[in-house]
Every structure is written in structure tokens, then in C-alpha cells.
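Retry 2 of 3 after timeout on previous attempt. Resubmitting C-alpha cells to design endpoint.
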């Protein structure tokens, strides 16, 4: 039988009866029932239904369908852990043949387009620095890229940045998006005033820098942009919206999630979403002239920035709302 049906059966109350017609009955977890009036049945094709003959609560699921709000409620009533429920929801999506785009968006897969043709990593490029005098075309651009990163207080060797001579890319630092070590997309940031600032190949649902959250920090700092994330080794949403799959991927880390929102209208919406998802939020007391995490790192250094973020970390909704009023209007 399938994962969803199996898991549901495992979590049904252990005190249960099987009827000849196939129902499993037990004390209904949806209400205060002591007469085993909850009924669960597995139908043909791995479909399941639950009926409470005490309070009237009903829910069902069959392969090809999403897990409904009511089924979700039933799973919670059975004390199925949240992350298991998240896995089952994902499994339901996976089984949904009509919804392949949505499935693709859940877990980033290796993207064969990978990087722009002839993109070269800094590590490879360092050999060019040793070339004899006179052959500076590549190393000059390389040096500009390194200077850009150093200006932003980002160690060029801490992340596998790329750089290419390709037209349209030659004044850009390419930040590959890695997932379990594979390149699944990238963004190319202009190091001059070129527009647009970022050129990207990005799959929805991807969380930037997830691979590098294996340290012993008890929390993960989540921001919007990749440079903010890189400057403190946090994660980035690469947009203002927290997608379901991003929430799921981040929760898999088993750490406290701390959003540092951008200080604009979109950032305010991100904060509201984070609250609904049970994340913590940090709106640090930045010194004058500091507008975001990367800015803070440039002016104060990494440790002081981390300290400011962590000491402003808050999980109480009311306190967050009060702080937000001030922080976004300052
Ligand atoms: Zn009930």
C-alpha cells in the first residue's frame, strides 16, 4: 500500500476493532468520543475515508488528489508529527499526474542548462593570475569581480562563484544555486551599473544556500537576497514570497527559522507569511546608514551583525507586530 494509507493506519489509535465490511473503528480523535464511533476504511485503489459517527466529521483522500484541509486536521488529531504530514502532502503532490509542474517546483532537480556556456570558476581562474605580463584580459575582469566581492566583505573563496567572458555576462559574478551539491540554477549579479542587476535561471521552490546549513548553529537566518545570505552564511528566498516547498525544505533542517525581512512593503508581506508558518523574526536595531544584512557586515563585520540579528530575534506574534510597526516606518 502507499505511503499515505500506510502512515494513516500506523497512527490510528491502537485500541481498534475491524468490522467484516472493512471498517476500522476506534475512539474518534476529532471529538470527545468514548464509544469507538470513529470509522476508517481503505477503499479500492488506495483511497481512504474517515467518518465520525459521533460529531459528523468526515474526510477522505485518493491518489491524484491533494491532501485537503480536513484530512490535514484529521492527521493532526491522530498526532502525526508536522514534518511527517508535510512529507505526506508532498507525496500526494507527487502522485498527482496532472500536476507535474507543481511537482517540479517542489524539489529542485539538476538543471542541464546549468551555467552559461564557458562560465569559469574563480578557483580555475586563479591560474590565470600567474600568466606572464601582457595577457591581462581575463585576469583584469577577474580582479574586478574579486574586488567587488571583497568590497561587500564576501570571501571569494568561501563560495564557488563563477565568472564568464560571454557577451552580456562579462561584468557579472555568477552565483550558482546548489542543491545537494548539484547546480540547479544560478544568478548573475552585475558588478557595475548594468541593468538588470540580476540575470537568473531559477526554479520555483528553491532555497539558496541550504546545502551550507549543516553547522552547529541552532537557527537558520533567512533573508531575501543571496548577498545578504552569503555575508552571514544564512539562506535566501530569492524573492519576497515564502513558497510552500521553501518552507518545507527549511523546516527539514530541524532548526529555528529566523526571517530578517527586507525593509519595504514586500518585506512586510514576507513577515506576515513567516508568522503564519511559525517562524521567528528579527528586525535588528541597525546603526544609522545600514539598510540590510550585507550593509551591516560591510560596516560592522560578520560577528557584530550576527549578534544584532540574534539579539533582536523574536517569536512572540504580538511583540513582532509591535516592533514591525516601528521598524518599517523608521
Ligand atoms: Zn468526532
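Retry 2 succeeded. Sequence:
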Amino acid at each position: 500500500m502507499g505511503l499515505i494509507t500506510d502512515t494513516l493506519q500506523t497512527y490510528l489509535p491502537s485500541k481498534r476493532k475491524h468490522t467484516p465490511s472493512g471498517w476500522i473503528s476506534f475512539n474518534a480523535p476529532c471529538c470527545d468520543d468514548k464509544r469507538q464511533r470513529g470509522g476508517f476504511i481503505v477503499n479500492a485503489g488506495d483511497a481512504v475515508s474517515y467518518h465520525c459517527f459521533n460529531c459528523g466529521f468526515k474526510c477522505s483522500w485518493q491518489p491524484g488528489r491533494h491532501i485537503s484541509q480536513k484530512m490535514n486536521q484529521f492527521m493532526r488529531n491522530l498526532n502525526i508529527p508536522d514534518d511527517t504530514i508535510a512529507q505526506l502532502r508532498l507525496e500526494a503532490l507527487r502522485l498527482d499526474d496532472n500536476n507535474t509542474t507543481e511537482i517540479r517546483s517542489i524539489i529542485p532537480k539538476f538543471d542541464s542548462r546549468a551555467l552559461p556556456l564557458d562560465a569559469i570558476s574563480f578557483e580555475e581562474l586563479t591560474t590565470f593570475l600567474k600568466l606572464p605580463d601582457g595577457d591581462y584580459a581575463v585576469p583584469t575582469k577577474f580582479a574586478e569581480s574579486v574586488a567587488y566581492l571583497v568590497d561587500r566583505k564576501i570571501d571569494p573563496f568561501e563560495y564557488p562563484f563563477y565568472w564568464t567572458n560571454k557577451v552580456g555576462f562579462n561584468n557579472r559574478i555568477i552565483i550558482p544555486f546548489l542543491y545537494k551539491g548539484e547546480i540547479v540554477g544560478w544568478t548573475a549579479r552585475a558588478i557595475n551599473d548594468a541593468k538588470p542587476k540580476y540575470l537568473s535561471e531559477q526554479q520555483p521552490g528553491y532555497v539558496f544556500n541550504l546545502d551550507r546549513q549543516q553547522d552547529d548553529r541552532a537557527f537558520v537566518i533567512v533573508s531575501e537576497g543571496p548577498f545578504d545570505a552569503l555575508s552571514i552564511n544564512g539562506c535566501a528566498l530569492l524573492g519576497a514570497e515564502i513558497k510552500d516547498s521553501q518552507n518545507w525544505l527549511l523546516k527539514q533542517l530541524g532548526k529555528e527559522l529566523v526571517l530578517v525581512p527586507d525593509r519595504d512593503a514586500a518585506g512586510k508581506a514576507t513577515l506576515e507569511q513567516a508568522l503564519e508558518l511559525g517562524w521567528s523574526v528579527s528586525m535588528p536595531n541597525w546603526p544609522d546608514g545600514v539598510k540590510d544584512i550585507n550593509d551591516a557586515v560591510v560596516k560592522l563585520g560578520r560577528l557584530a551583525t550576527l549578534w544584532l540579528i540574534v539579539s533582536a530575534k523574536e517569536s512572540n506574534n504580538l511583540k513582532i507586530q509591535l516592533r514591525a510597526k516601528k521598524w518599517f516606518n523608521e
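Attempt log closed. The first strand starts at residue 17 and ends at 18.
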